[in-house]
Amino acid sequence: MNQCQVIAVPVDTATWPVAFVVPRTNLVPDPNALLRRCKDSLAPFKRPLRIYIVDELPMSHGQNGSKVQRHVLREWETRRLGSNGLLKYLDARSSAAQG
């Protein structure tokens, strides 16, 4: 992994962790393998429901250094949710809690 950012996506009255990963050059990580590793090493409430492999993270650059624009990542995930997004999240969360 070259870079990673986990964000909290608000859904209904809860927040859900979602991870965005920028892989190292010439590597193609398997999101399912990363999820399994998270399951083995993280508490259930810390496990991301989804892991997206992206080419780059949205960054802002200023005098104090570079920062990931987490609000942009939240917007990306909110758009991906679509009209049935809440049901998909609840199903995913239920499956994650059982597994």
UniProtKB/TrEMBL annotation:
Top-level EC class as recorded in UniProt: ligase
Keywords carried by this UniProt record: Ligase
Full protein name: 2-succinylbenzoate--CoA ligase
GO terms, molecular function: o-succinylbenzoate-CoA ligase activity
AMP-binding enzyme C-terminal domain: residues covered: 2-60
Superkingdom to which the source organism belongs: Bacteria
EC number: 6.2.1.26
Keyword match Membrane: no
UniProt key word NADP: no
